[in-house]
Amino acid sequence: MRFRLDDDVAIDVDGVTKSLLTKVADEINADPGLVGLYRHEDSSFLYFDTAVCCGGTIGSVSKGKYRGLGRLIGLTLKKANSGATLPIHFPLCMYKCLLGDSLTVQDLDSISSSLSHSLHDMCLMDDDIFDSLELTMSGIMSDGKVYEWETNGINHIVQANHRLDFLRGFLQFHLCCNFNEQVLLEELILGVQDVCPRDVFNRLSPLSLQMMLEGSRIIDVNDWKTHTEVKMSGRAGQSTVDLFWQVVEEMSPEDRNQLLCFSTGSAALPSGGFLALSPTFTLVIGTKSIDSLPESHTCFNMLVLPPYQDKKLMKTKLTMAFTMTQVDQFGNA
């Protein structure tokens, strides 16, 4: 695969791809509307946007956004063996949609806990309290416009004896289980198939697909150490290796993720941890001056350290390296 970044051609051996996917995921998490998604205030997950799914005829722009998102998912699946991840914060029900599984009442909780609690309360409240709410067969979309679940639904005040009809409409509206969502879902799946055969993910469960795509941001230092290939020469090299693991042990979880991203192009691990990382993570103790910063080769999951002999100096240099070399600069892919 080839990329052109600011007029600089890069021949990719998966390092550029991993960095690109991580950067794109960060952009989508920060602004879900880029790809037609939405995040409720009380949730960390991104899901279909009601304004897009329920807001009338879907245009080519919305279809293109979902087709593009599907291609990103397909590319990640295709490159999963090299440790590629797409850490977009999807709820499990999004993966159920991709695999054609039915959604349930419980799926609403991952989209919005307040909506889920409201649904639960309305199921259990007394009839007279339900009637006093004067609910209508309609809901408010993310853009503030009204969506009616039936003709003239905004003027249909629901009585307790029609509670189940209202709750069914409420659930289908917020889970986006309507015609437009199916059109968008088809575009999403077609995007995946543009890059990766569908049978690759049809064999997976929703949870397995989620783990494969998003990876894990929890780093076990012992797992990292166990599945690292070390290249060095002499006793001085071994002392640098020992200092490195001490520094990593003392890092915050966020700094470990940044170091992993600097070294491999991805801030998340494959579902199998470092054992599943391909190529194997390699730590090289080089010969450059200790005044130099560490270097990385993300295509090969390789970190190259000068022969530091002071822990404080090593920590400073590592922090400078992963702070200054942002993922959008793509480092030494």
The strand line-up of the biggest sheet is: 7-8-10-9
Stretches with pLDDT under 50, minimum 5 residues: 327-331
Shape label: elongated
Number of strands: 10
| Gap between N and C termini | 13 Å
**Structural class of the helix and strand makeup?**
alpha/beta
Count up the helices: 15
Radius of gyration: 24 Å
Query: What value does the average pLDDT take?
Result: 86
Strand content: 5-15%
Tell me the series of helices and strands, N- to C-terminal.
Answer: EEHEEHHHHHHEEHHHHHEHHEEEH
Provide the helix percentage: 40-55%
Biggest β-sheet: count, sense, barrel? 4 strands, mixed
How many discrete domains?
2
Q: Would you write up a description of this structure?
A:
It is a single chain. With 333 residues, the chain is α/β, with parallel strands linked by helices. The protein folds into 2 domains: 31-215, no CATH class; 221-329, 2-Layer Sandwich (Hect, E3 ligase catalytic fold). The chain is built from 15 helices and 10 strands. The strands form 4 sheets. It has a 4-stranded mixed β-sheet with strand order 7-8-10-9. A two-stranded antiparallel ribbon has the order 1-2. Strands 3-4 form a two-stranded antiparallel sheet. A hairpin with an 8-residue loop joins strand 3 and strand 4 (47-48). Helix 3 (60-78) crosses helix 9 (179-195), helix 13 (234-250) crosses helix 15 (311-324) and helix 14 (253-264) packs across helix 15 (311-324). The radius of gyration is 24 Å and the shape is elongated. The model is unreliable at 327-331 (pLDDT under 50).
